[in-house]
Every structure is written in C-alpha cells, then in structure tokens.
Amino acid sequence: MTDNLEPLTPGEAMQMYLDERSHELADATIQSHRYRLKQFVQWCEEDGIGNLNGFSGRDIHRFRVKRRNEDELATASMKGQLATLRMFLRFCATIDAVEPGLDEKIILPTTTEADARTELLNPDRARQILDFLNQYRYARLEHALMEVLWHTGLRIGAAIGLDREDYSSEEQYLTLVHRPEEGTSLKNGRKSERLVALSETVCEVLDDWLSVNHPGVRDQYEREPLFATKIDRLSRTRGRTIVYQYTRPCVYADSCPHDRELDECDAVPTERSHACPSSLSPHPVRRGAITHFLKSDVPENVVSDRMDASEAVLDRHYDQRSEREKLRQRRRYLPEN
C-alpha cells in the first residue's frame, strides 16, 4: 500500500507542515503546533521511525500511550496534542507521505469543564517561588519574567513580545502592542492591545533588571526587548522552560512531594524540568493569576480587560472559585436594605 508514497522523515514533514500553515495561522498558534509536533518528532526518532510512509494506526496508539502514561499528559493537553497530530497527518497525506485517511484513526479524548481548568498556580505557591527568586536570583531574567507573569497574567507570547520602551517605570504600566510583521503578535490581534498596570514591587524588580542585569541586546528588527538573553529576545521555548524550571518544588522549597531522589530524578536537568509532575507551564500561571484576582474581589469586567479574555472565557477556562465563594463575594455588592 506504500508503493505510491514518497519517503519523508518526520522532521522534514513537520517543517513542511509549519511552512504551509504559517500563511493561515497566527504566530502564537504556529508556535503551539511546533511545540506539539516537536514532541512527536522526538518520539519518532527515539522509536526508530525515520520514514513516515509506514506510519500506522498502531503507531498512533503507541504514541498516545506514551504521552498519556509516561509523560502524564492531562486530558485537555492530550486533546490538543492529538488534534495537532491529526491535522499534521492529514497534510502528510496530501503530499504522499502517509496513507490517506490515517488522520481519521485519531480519536480525540472527551474533555469536561473540569479538564479545561485543572492546573493552576495558587497564591501560596507563587509567593514561595517569588520569594526564592527574590533571594537567590534577584532582578535576573527569570525573576523579572516570573514577577510579571504572576502579577499580570500575561500569556507567554505577549510577555516575550514586550520591548523596553513598552515599560513605563514612572507611571508603572506595560503597553501591549500587536506587531505581527516583526514576529511579536498578540493572541487576539489589535484587540489585545492595552495598558496593564503594575505594582510598585514589580516595577522595582524591572527597574533593577533593566539597570543592572539586562544584556542590552537588540533583536533582528533593531528593537530592544524587555526580556532578553545575552544574544537575543527571549524565545517562547526558553520562556516556557524558565516557568517549568522554577515551579519544581525541589527548587523553591528544597523538597520533593513525589519522594524522588534528586540524584536519580530525570527532571533535575533544566532541559528536562517539564518532566517533573509538579512543574507547570506558563498557562497554569496565567490561570492562577486570574483566579487570584477574581478571589480578591476584583470585578470580572476589570479582570477581563486586564487579562484579555472575555467574561465567558474567564468563567469556563480560568475561574476556579466555588459557587459559594461567588455567592459570598456578590453579597458585598448588595444594599443593606
């Protein structure tokens, strides 16, 4: 059945797919697809699959089991992973790399409302992480980034797209600007453009980061990024890794809730920090920040504007207040008589 197919490696197919979709999808979506397919390509390499021509439904099953059991992917994350793989295999069929209809063998898991908002960074844990960074990595890149992510609830793409000039130290706010032609787009385009207020504490960290530790580099568009490495603007991948790295309990609390020996744990190296069962990606940090604002009695319309998410989206995907908590908070706005 593979006589009509043309040999193609998973890595080459991934790049062809991303190149094709880049003309129709937002930059943030392309980055998401790249991240998910990178996991698939890596699995293929480890499994000795160098040509997609013979890829089958059984291989799909083995990959799914690996991501669910070994990588402990949550249901919602698994659904996103498989949805991207299905689109990828559908594309591969159009370029004679896999058998037509292979994508139809991928059955997406059913997610519930609870699945959509399981993981989040709670305030106590956030404080522990920030206290650790304040003491041991004060005003370094990771400290400045984590302070901003927790305090503002920004998406990681929006955070890395900030320039130095987008930060006003005197008036204490950030300016979010949609710049797709220069590689830093916002999730909802120009609708996402807004001013985001900062606290005095966050501004002190940013001021010291910029005056003492910022490398002063410029990106390929001659813009000076707010968050930068020694050579370029902070990448989405590196930003995610920082969050994974510093949400591991063994880092900020010097303990392991999973009873692992650190000298044997595969999640100790920074590049493997995502393998820690307790580490979090940037999105749970955003979810935790939003829930924290809502629990602090900040009106939903204010949180909606600040976090660039409609009230309906807040309610379904982010708000983890119980119905009793919502009732208690609503009572405060009722008249006495």
From TrEMBL:
<dbReference type="Pfam" id="PF00589">
    <property type="entry name" value="Phage_integrase"/>
</dbReference>
<dbReference type="Pfam" id="PF02899">
    <property type="entry name" value="Phage_int_SAM_1"/>
</dbReference>
<keyword id="KW-0233">DNA recombination</keyword>
<dbReference type="InterPro" id="IPR002104">
    <property type="entry name" value="Integrase_catalytic"/>
</dbReference>
<dbReference type="GO" id="GO:0015074">
    <property type="term" value="P:DNA integration"/>
</dbReference>
<keyword id="KW-0229">DNA integration</keyword>
<dbReference type="InterPro" id="IPR050090">
    <property type="entry name" value="Tyrosine_recombinase_XerCD"/>
</dbReference>
<dbReference type="GO" id="GO:0003677">
    <property type="term" value="F:DNA binding"/>
</dbReference>
<feature type="domain" description="Core-binding (CB)">
    <location>
        <begin position="8"/>
        <end position="93"/>
    </location>
</feature>
<dbReference type="InterPro" id="IPR011010">
    <property type="entry name" value="DNA_brk_join_enz"/>
</dbReference>
<dbReference type="InterPro" id="IPR004107">
    <property type="entry name" value="Integrase_SAM-like_N"/>
</dbReference>
<dbReference type="InterPro" id="IPR013762">
    <property type="entry name" value="Integrase-like_cat_sf"/>
</dbReference>
<dbReference type="InterPro" id="IPR044068">
    <property type="entry name" value="CB"/>
</dbReference>
<protein>
    <submittedName>
        <fullName>Integrase family protein</fullName>
    </submittedName>
</protein>
<dbReference type="InterPro" id="IPR010998">
    <property type="entry name" value="Integrase_recombinase_N"/>
</dbReference>
<dbReference type="GO" id="GO:0006310">
    <property type="term" value="P:DNA recombination"/>
</dbReference>
<feature type="domain" description="Tyr recombinase">
    <location>
        <begin position="116"/>
        <end position="332"/>
    </location>
</feature>
<keyword id="KW-0238">DNA-binding</keyword>
